[in-house]
Specification:
Layout lengths: L4 E6 L5 H7 L2 E10 L4 E2 L7 E4 L2 E10 L4 E10 L5 E8 L12 E6 L7 E2 L7 E3 L2 E7 L11 E7 L4 E5 L3 H4 L6 E9 L2 E8 L4 E7 L8 E8 L5 E7 L4 E6 L4 E6 L4 E8 L17
Antiparallel strand pairs: 1-2, 2-3, 2-4, 5-6, 6-7, 7-8, 9-11, 10-11, 11-12, 12-13, 14-15, 15-16, 16-17, 18-19, 19-20, 20-21
Organism: Crotalaria pallida
Protein name: F-box associated beta-propeller type 1 domain-containing protein
InterPro entries: F-box-assoc_dom_typ1, F-box-assoc_interact_dom, F-box_domain
């Protein structure tokens, strides 16, 4: 579990950014924050430049083999030579931090595995020393459910592997599905999606991480006029907290008796993660 949090800002007020914007380059600045001790990192890595024809997803996790925190930048290059490169920054690896602290780890192959990042608000999900990202298996729009796979990047070995989604899902027509994604709840990897016509929300759990045949469907509910996203699960009692994207409201679902408890207050939240208090310094 994470003991620190990663903050990402697109800074337009730090001198060189104005010049870089003319050149169609954005600079992303990283901060490390531990709210338990109200401390923010003092030594920052150099800004991460992203060009106009590039798309960025980030992941932040803990490498228990070296006892270090790492940030992975998944950068999709949309030009003629389409590819996704992975760069890695290790917290506390350098003092002072050099300009070339972002290490180029690998490039996801463009053939036969032409991965594409999805335009979703969520970044990579951390679990058991890995960063997990839902991607499209083919370049261009998602035309079928079997295009969607999970890329799991191991922070220890700095290698990746593919994980398939539930077999029942990849057999469904893409026209029936909307708003899909992955999340980490209760120490497991989960996949979710919404049906358009039946207005059903479905939540799958990978019961044994890395074992593709271990997907089980735990939640399937129908709510009129709702488009749901999972936020959190409570073990005692067994409760799933969901966000209704269409109405900016939260609800609690009780799977045992199939009941729903609505919370009408505004909730502009599309993602959530576990946080464990720690005295670790974000340096």
């Amino acid at each position: 579990m994470l003991l620190l949090r990663l903050l990402l800002t697109h800074d337009q007020n730090h001198g060189p950014c104005h010049r870089l914007q003319v050149e169609n380059v954005r600079e992303y600045h990283l901060l490390f924050w531990n709210p338990a001790i109200k401390s923010v990192s003092k030594t920052l890595p150099p800004p991460l430049p992203i060009h106009a024809d590039e798309f960025l997803k980030l992941g932040f996790g803990y490498d228990d083999s070296t006892h270090t925190y790492k940030v992975a930048a998944f950068i999709e290059h949309m030009g003629y030579e389409h590819r996704i490169t992975i760069k890695l920054y290790t917290l506390g690896d350098h003092d002072p931090v050099p300009e070339n602290c972002w290490r180029h780890i690998l490039t996801l192959p463009s053939s036969p595995d032409d991965f594409c990042l999805l335009n979703t608000p969520s970044d990579a999900k951390t679990l058991n020393g890995t960063l997990n990202l839902l991607v499209s298996y083919k370049f261009g729009p998602v035309w079928s459910t079997d295009q969607l796979v999970i890329v799991s990047f191991d922070l220890r070995t700095e290698t990746y592997r593919k994980l398939s989604l539930p077999r029942e899902f990849v057999r469904m027509p893409i026209e029936q599905i909307e708003i899909w994604g992955i999340t980490v709840l209760r120490g497991s990897l989960w996949f979710f999606h919404n049906f358009i016509e039946t207005e059903e929300f479905v939540l799958w759990q990978m019961n044994e991480f890395g074992v593709e045949k271990s997907w089980i469907q735990l939640v399937r509910i129908r709510i009129d006029g709702a488009s749901l996203l999972p936020l959190f699960t409570f073990e005692n009692p067994d409760v799933v907290m969901l966000s209704n994207k269409l109405e900016d409201e939260a609800l609690l679902y009780y799977p045992r008796d199939n009941t729903i408890e609505w919370h009408a207050q505004t909730l502009r939240c599309v993602d959530a993660m576990d946080y464990v208090q720690s005295l670790v310094l974000p340096y």
